[in-house]
Write a structure and sequence with these properties.
34% of the residues lie in helices and 22% in strands. It is globular and about 80 Å long. It contains 14 helices and 18 strands. The structure holds zinc ion.
Length: 454
């Protein structure tokens, strides 16, 4: 295969990555279309220009189809600067049940857009990372620090084949890394007449749990006065209808102050009142749709997703349960999160934590100003702001190793472009211009700005 054409064209890279169907079908299933061929293509690109990569497989059965690739672009070793990690996933979510105007795996370029599943989540972003790195390698220039590039499998499920595995079982490969750039951030968002560039500094935390109620058991013919079903259904009703308390955290404070300063005027001042806990919910209720965007950043929240209990239709069960997915604001401890639940449902329940991915602690803003400077240099209209993601990314695993991950893949989008509506949806597409903009901006950051921070 003629690989030369890819090295100076991030659009061709993104198109090729999209053409590998890497749909992540389910958490544990071995799929017909795993990430393997896509990640091996990236390896070939590095091999072909003389840069070696390591491939890591998880311990799970079938792991050979779901590799992870780590590449090191060595610096000149002249200065003691921590290496930087550019990372992302190459799996994508399913297109099932979605009506696409174009084949989601063809990589069609039409009307200035590259279409396809993964265009913005996150094969386009990989193309930006790779575009900048290939430009650097091809230039023959050595930077005063090392750059790592990591492409992982399985982000769209739980990372068991990918980042979660690497962080838990191969932490040594991250040795010395303090900062990383990953997905969701650094791209433009037109709002209230401004062109914001939210740079992700932190994200919410996920915990999943089973909550069990106990009560009097018996035959279905008796009158039951202390039933587990009644207790559980009351608890479910309360959890589904009551708000958890306002929790103001440092990263969200940075975000809201940044947005308020960017917007300015009366609207900016109103936004800042969100940070006064006694006023938060009142202001949210006045903000309409915007309130829905800020709500999850200012409260823990929980959704009940599974229900169970009982053994037979004619027996009153002694216990019944539900399972729930809770999202906690950054910096919130699990103890405080559980307290929010107990304050709503009361103390008479067993709560078993099934999973907790701690993240979002101690945000390190050291690189933020430089990241903002890079987008401003390449887009004179840019108003960068710190940003906290209500969802989660693989960055949460890196956090455990003390690595600060920023969501930073610079892209410029037209006014009518809506990243959130296109991600995971039909007709996912990325402006071709966004990929070249991203490559140039990131290259500038890597070659001119990062080393200046140390
Ligand atoms: Zn993603």
């Amino acid at each position: 295969m003629d690989l030369e054409k890819y090295y100076n064209d991030p659009v061709l890279i993104a198109q090729k990555l999209i053409q590998f169907n890497t749909t992540n079908v389910s958490e544990k299933e071995i799929k017909d279309t795993p990430e393997g061929p896509c990640i091996m293509f990236v390896k070939e690109l590095f091999d072909n220009i003389g840069v070696e990569s390591e491939i890591y497989y998880s311990d799970l059965e079938g792991a050979k189809d779901r590799p992870n690739l780590m590449t090191k672009i060595e610096g000149d070793g002249t200065r003691n600067i921590p290496p930087l990690l550019l990372y992302g996933h190459l799996d994508v979510v399913s297109t099932e049940g979605q009506e696409w105007e174009e084949d989601p795996f063809a990589g069609v370029i039409k009307d200035g857009y590259l279409w396809g599943r993964g265009a913005i989540d996150m094969k386009g972003e990989h193309a930006i990372f790779l575009g900048a790195l290939f430009k650097l390698i091809k230039s023959g220039r050595k930077l005063p620090y090392d750059i790592y590039y990591l492409a992982v499998s399985d982000e769209e499920a739980d990372g068991e084949w990918g980042m979660k595995y690497l962080v838990n079982s191969k932490p040594e490969i991250f040795e010395g890394i303090k900062y990383a750039f990953g997905e969701i951030g650094g791209f433009s968002l037109h709002m209230m007449g401004k062109k914001f560039y939210p740079i992700q500094i932190s994200e919410k935390q996920v915990t999943r749990m089973r909550i069990t109620a106990h009560g009097e058991a018996g035959h279905a013919s008796i009158k039951c006065t202390d039933s587990a079903v009644e207790k559980l259904s009351l608890a479910m009703h309360k959890l589904s209808t009551k708000n958890m308390p306002v929790r103001i955290t440092k990263p969200v404070e940075l975000m809201i102050n940044g947005l308020a300063d960017g917007i300015g005027g009366l609207k900016g001042s109103v936004l800042k009142i969100l940070l006064k806990p006694s006023m938060t919910d009142f202001i949210l209720s006045k903000l309409g749709n915007a309130g829905d965007l800020f709500y999850p950043l200012l409260h823990n929240s929980i959704n009940i997703t599974l229900l169970g209990g009982g053994t037979a239709i004619n027996i009153i069960p002694s216990s019944v349960w539900f399972e729930a997915d809770m999202r906690m604001v950054p910096e919130c401890s699990i103890e405080d999160g559980l307290q929010d639940i107990k304050d709503i449902i009361g103390p008479d329940f067993d709560i078993d934590i099934k999973m907790y991915d701690q993240s979002g602690r101690d945000v390190d803003m050291k690189l933020y100003d430089g990241l903002a400077e890079a987008v401003k240099k390449h887009d004179s209209e840019a108003v960068p702001v710190p940003f906290v993601l209500a969802a989660v990314t693989d960055g949460r695993f890196l956090q455990r190793l003390g690595i600060q991950s920023y969501g930073y893949t610079p892209m410029t989008f037209p006014k009518d472009y809506n990243f959130t509506n296109l991600s995971h949806n039909a007709n996912e597409r990325v402006p071709v211009e966004a990929l070249t903009f991203g490559t140039e901006t990131l290259y500038d950051y890597l070659t001119n700005i990062y080393q200046g921070e140390f």
